[in-house]
Amino acid sequence: MVFEIKSRIATFGGELLKLSHASSATKTPMAVSIYLPPASKTTRVPVLLYLSGLTCTPDNCSEKGFLHATASKRGIAIVYPDTSPRGANIAGEDDAYDFGSGAGFYVDAVQEPWSNHYKMETYIVSELLTSLFEELSSSSSSPEINIAEKLDKSRISITGHSMGGHGALTLYLKNPGLFKSVSAFAPISNPSRCPWGEKAFAGYLGSDDKEEWKKHDATELVKAGGWKGKDLKALIDVGTGDDFYKQGQLLPENFEAAVKEAGVSDVTVRYQENYDHSYYFISTFAQDHVEHAAKYLF
Amino acid sequence: MVFEIKSRIATFGGELLKLSHASSATKTPMAVSIYLPPASKTTRVPVLLYLSGLTCTPDNCSEKGFLHATASKRGIAIVYPDTSPRGANIAGEDDAYDFGSGAGFYVDAVQEPWSNHYKMETYIVSELLTSLFEELSSSSSSPEINIAEKLDKSRISITGHSMGGHGALTLYLKNPGLFKSVSAFAPISNPSRCPWGEKAFAGYLGSDDKEEWKKHDATELVKAGGWKGKDLKALIDVGTGDDFYKQGQLLPENFEAAVKEAGVSDVTVRYQENYDHSYYFISTFAQDHVEHAAKYLF
């Protein structure tokens, strides 16, 4: 598989590459962007994978998240996958903001017809990371650039926002050793018990086997006990003015209680007074999250 | 006149206020946003006025420009006016991206029907700044906040992007002493001689008296000689990958030549390799422009 370079944009001393590639996991083209810091011109740099929230494309956070300012200084590449397949031509896929297009929830769907394309867990963990580190990227319209040789595949951390915070926490917890650290902005921390998660899990995973849901729920994954006595290397920020937090969509307290109960260490959850769910919140704390990753990547 | 607070958003330790007020200059409601840094809780802070480019509302730069990161640290308020009246109900006002709505060019129109509403120079210089510094702001939905008592009206600087860079340079040059310094991102530096400026000036000012155009053209204002031997305290950044620069819409070289010819000092024009016209460019150099203002505001 070869990445097609849609555009190259100079920013913060490095460049943002907007890419597209044919995914075998989703059987669709997938958009992904990558910020390459100036250090990548002379050395292999570690990678911070940023998973976006409901409705987002790779553009939202790369335009508004402000991660590049610190990633530029620290020499970290940021990878922004899309939040779902696009154009899978499934009836109703564009009908809701919280299911289907823009709402893949970072799980592999088992329910028809979603299971034909909505394989976001496999896409992210098995396909995208492998491709970025191994494939020669080329474009007919731009000079060739070999992304793989700019990245250090032994050093990857993960972060995300809202649905992407859920994705970051669950993919981290399910794949010990793959990522050096995890962080999240306003994550959906216990999706089995909130309206967004219940709708998505019922639709993608089915409602018959709730045990299956637990494999994609950060709070339940911690309760399962595999991380007992271990350092989670996790930083979580939640705004107290976040309407979705107030509505019980995020439930970070459940995650905190599970962490305490399970005897997991090195988890910092901060409640930021008055901050909302928007990029005004993300951009404010972006520096802290990139620095958190840097602590473990270097 | 009283500002209505549409929303208050916590960001970078301070808050962004989205306001609306009835303008006597434009005879329409006008949107304006203001970022209040944390220092404004305890002291009067200086102000950096940011004028946006074609098509923009106060939201574009407040979401994507990243001026707040440095404004927060330095204790500077940022004011984001809109780029034109909205809803003036002039036939054709929404037909083009570069004339009418979103394209007021910071001049007072004299041509009918625009002259009934498109008085952006008067709005910015005479009405907005006066109102911000003197009016008690209130909202039925939020706790009252007195913006005026948080701002130091004796310390104002001005900056802007593209059409807003034109606005920043011309309003600065035309009002000696009003602003402490000026900067611009990719400014339309010689509008009398580029397609954007020619269209806007012909429409708002008429084509009969080209001398009138010179009063709203940064290059011509410098040529006029009033700044001879004086420090302009100006910082300008232009990306060499900017398509509008390549198309001759910006003409910063004309401004530089005029500065040299007129014997004006303290003007820094930087050509940033490969950078484009977007917020990826603005956000990269936002820190430098806020620091430039800070140098003269403190």
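Residues 244 and 250 of chain B are 7 Å apart (CA to CA).
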